[in-house]
Design a protein that fits this description.
By secondary structure, the protein is of the alpha+beta class. It has a single domain, classed as 3-Layer(aba) Sandwich (L-fuculose-1-phosphate Aldolase). It has six helices and nine strands, in the order H-E-E-E-E-H-E-H-E-E-H-E-E-H-H. It has a nine-stranded mixed beta sheet, sandwiched between helices. The protein is globular. The relative contact order is 0.15.
């Protein structure tokens, strides 16, 4: 079986996503890239009930290489992200706080310095119907400039990583940041970190990948 270890890893991450509330039901999807091949979760299947053989393998053009099930409907978005980033894995969530922020805002401001680990201010990609080339293009635009995560308007979130564990942890961090913001808004107006304050964090040793100050 091609990418056998990677397909097993998709199942493991799928279970963790369901257990931690990053997805519910058959929502959300995951993929991992190895060279010119991508293993992705199947469409319409709960992520905590997958077996490795359920996860199809495609080439970077989206053509099937191995597997009986149809790939996730969000596969075009995954392929678009692989095309414009150094990602080796992608996690797409339908988490509660991420969806709240994605439904009400155009970006998640830096309310905590760990925002830098995601590349700075998290952008909300413009709305488009799921699974369409338009959504893939919008997400790709939202992740320009070395971003490690983005939100999708009225939809959910997406995070990338150097491997599946890294992408999963970035997705968890995105949900935590959204949760902090939403809860802070319930008791007052959150204080947003300034550009100078973020630069001071970088100078003290936090080394977020590809982060650049906003100009």
């Amino acid at each position: 079986m091609k990418l056998a270890a990677e397909r097993r890893a998709l199942c493991g991450i799928g279970r963790r996503m369901a257990e931690t509330g990053l997805v519910s039901g058959a929502s959300g999807n995951i993929s991992v890239r190895v060279g010119d091949l991508v293993a992705v979760t199947p469409g319409g299947m709960m992520l905590d009930r997958m077996a490795p053989e359920d996860c199809p393998v495609l080439d970077l053009g989206g053509r099937p290489v191995e597997g009986e099930r149809a790939p996730s409907s969000e596969t075009p978005m995954h392929l678009a992200i692989y095309d414009c980033t150094d990602a080796a894995a992608i996690v797409h969530t339908h988490s509660t706080y991420g969806a709240v922020v994605a439904t009400t805002m155009t970006e998640l401001p830096p309310i905590h310095y760990n925002t830098l680990l995601l590349g700075g201010v998290v952008k909300v990609a413009e709305y488009a119907t799921y699974g369409t080339p338009e959504l893939a293009a919008n997400v790709r635009a939202a992740m320009e400039g070395g971003k490690r995560a983005a939100l999708m308007a009225n939809h959910g979130g997406v995070a990338i990583g150097v491997d599946l564990d890294d992408a999963y942890e970035n997705a968890r961090l995105l949900e935590w940041l959204c949760g902090v913001y939403v809860r802070a808004k319930a008791i007052g107006e959150p204080r947003i970190l300034t550009e100078e304050e973020l630069l001071q964090v970088v100078e003290r040793g936090l080394d977020p990948p590809e982060w650049r100050p906003v100009t």
